[in-house]
Amino acid sequence: APMDDPPSQDQPKPTPLERPNSAQLSGVINMLMEEGLYDEPAIRFSRLLPRDQADILSFLSSEHLAALIDRISLEALAEATEGLDASDVRLAMPNGMLADLLDVISPHVAADVLRALPQDVADSALESMEAAAEVAPLMAYEDDGAVGLMTPEFIAIHETVTVSQAMSFIRTWAEEYGAANISQVFLVDNDGVVTGTASLSQLVLARPFHDVSLIMNRDVISVATGTDQKEVARIMKRHDIHRLPVVNDANRIVDMVVIDDIIDVFEHEATEDMFRMIGVDQGERALGPFWRSVRSRLPWLCVNLATAIAAGLVITLYQSTMIQAVALAAFLPVIAGQGGIAGTQTLTLIVRSIALGELATGNAKRLLLKEAGLGLIHGIVVGLLVAGIVFAWKGNPWLALVVGLAMTANMMVAGVSGVLVPLGLRALKIDPGLASAVAVTTATDVIGFLIYLGLATLMITLIVG
How far is it, in rounded angstroms, from Cα 445 to Cα 311? Predict the structure, then answer.
């Protein structure tokens, strides 16, 4: 039979269908609900994947959220809330449904939610839960520790069993819990202490009558229950581990952390650092509740207002100088702006390096000298550029000199403050990302104005002469 002609090269190639993102979907659902249509949004919601559903819940207004919850099953709601932050779950759930929902979601998520609640509300919800016995012990740990990442689905077998016995146990376990989480087993001794690991592929390829101890990997890396999530993430990334056992004080395995949860930690921590640097609550969403955004941003805007007033007070100290040379005012935002940008560059790098565990306390002096040197080099280059511009514009060499020197000095201040602020906060046991940008900007504004106007005061006769 003759072959069909090949398709013409001029014919357009089919393109894959684009899935709307969560923001678009939430916009459609909100629009339908505003028109009084509630069943159609619930149907659309039920067809989404759990992670997409979680995003929808965080985008919807409180009124529309309540209407949606009334029209979906508790099990579907539980799957969606697994992907929400603890604070978002608390805000999303009506009080009457909270205990029922916490019974259905995984214990460590339920514990996170209860920790985010006021104590009296948490106690009341815990008393109403059927799974209280599983959740209550987890509440004793910090929500940013390894316990907050644990999953109860893991396999631990005795190190003396044969490969055949191990495989038989795995099959039985899979029938009850499913095969999704089976890729590795932990081997323990008579005291329950982890002595090694074996992958499923090793067990499949081994001789059935061999002891698993002959094929197991004895170099076991584990973490304690109180280990911070950031440290857990760093350990798994550094050693390329997909499953990490969590052990108690007796070194007995109590649970396990999987790589899927660590991906969430990296995203969470990166977002948290970025938002904290600029004084925004991590739970805020672009299309989230209006008043939540107000509560999130307003406090730090007030703090920034106070620091801006402090910079303004510095200017008032040199009123007489400003009156004699009004042209000085034109370059105040230039000095402050360049210093702020340079400081933010350094600050962002330092905060991220601290978060990744790349900076030790002993490196502080070396880092400080490096950033001061960078500030000097950048300051000289930018200072010469701005001095040339000032001279070409105003024709005043002394004004150009003052602006150039002030720029150079403020760039050095920016580099040094970008190091000292986050390292100082870390030394005080405060998160270095906590609105550090406000502190650095204040330093470059206040010190920059002092240097600039101080030099101008010393050279005022030359500038106006």
Answer: 6
pLDDT for residue 435: 66
Each residue of 113-124: pLDDT tens digit? 777 777 777 777
Contact (CB, 8 A) for 438 and 366: no
- Cβ contacts of 368 within 8 Å, gap of 6 or more: 416, 419, 420
Do residues 136 and 227 share a domain?
A: no
Alpha helices in 82-220 (DSSP H): 86-92, 95-104, 107-116, 119-128, 132-135, 163-177, 200-205
Residues 175 and 134 grouped into a single domain: no
Do 223 and 347 lie in a common domain? no
First to last CA, the chain: 99
The two structure tokens encoding residue 445: 């504004």
Question: What is the β-pairing status of strands 253-258 and 243-247?
Answer: antiparallel
| Same domain, yes or no: 69 and 185 | no
Give the bridge partners for 194, in sequence order.
188
**Quick one: tokens of 100?**
């029922």
pLDDT digit string, tens, across residues 327-376 = 999 999 999 999 999 998 898 888 878 777 777 767 788 888 999 999 99
Interval 236-275: pLDDT, tens: 888 888 888 888 888 888 777 877 777 766 666 667 766 7
Same domain, 452 and 306: yes
Boundary of a domain, candidates 83, 110, 142: 142
pLDDT at 334: 93
- CA distances 440 to 247, 278, 334, 348, Å, are 41, 11, 16, 11
Report residues of the chain scoring pLDDT below 50.
1-18, 145-150
Whether residue 305 sits in one domain with residue 399: yes
> Radius of gyration over alpha carbons of the chain, in Å?
30
Q: How far apart are CA 105 and CA 84, in angstroms?
A: 11
| Domain count for the chain | 3
